[in-house]
Write a structure and sequence with these properties.
The chain has no helices and 5 strands. It is mostly beta strands.
């Protein structure tokens, strides 16, 4: 798993009907993009260092939309 600052980390819940967790990667201790990641969680408004497990995935950051 490789990531960049600004990517989203999504952790799926193992229980059906239970929401997962979504956060934004704010720092990478390793320059090659490998875990662990410092993630700012949307729910709870806090940051934590995490080593994602098998129920996790990375969504690349979306480029900023440009308006003329």
């Amino acid at each position: 798993m490789k990531a960049q600052v600004g990517d989203e980390l999504i952790i799926e819940s193992p229980e059906p009907g239970t929401p997962g967790r979504i956060g934004t990667i704010v720092a990478l201790p390793d320059t090659d993009g490998s875990p662990p990641y410092l993630v700012h969680w949307l729910v709870g408004d806090y940051a934590s260092l995490i080593e994602p497990g098998p129920n996790s995935r990375i969504e690349p950051r979306r480029p900023a939309s440009r308006t003329s």
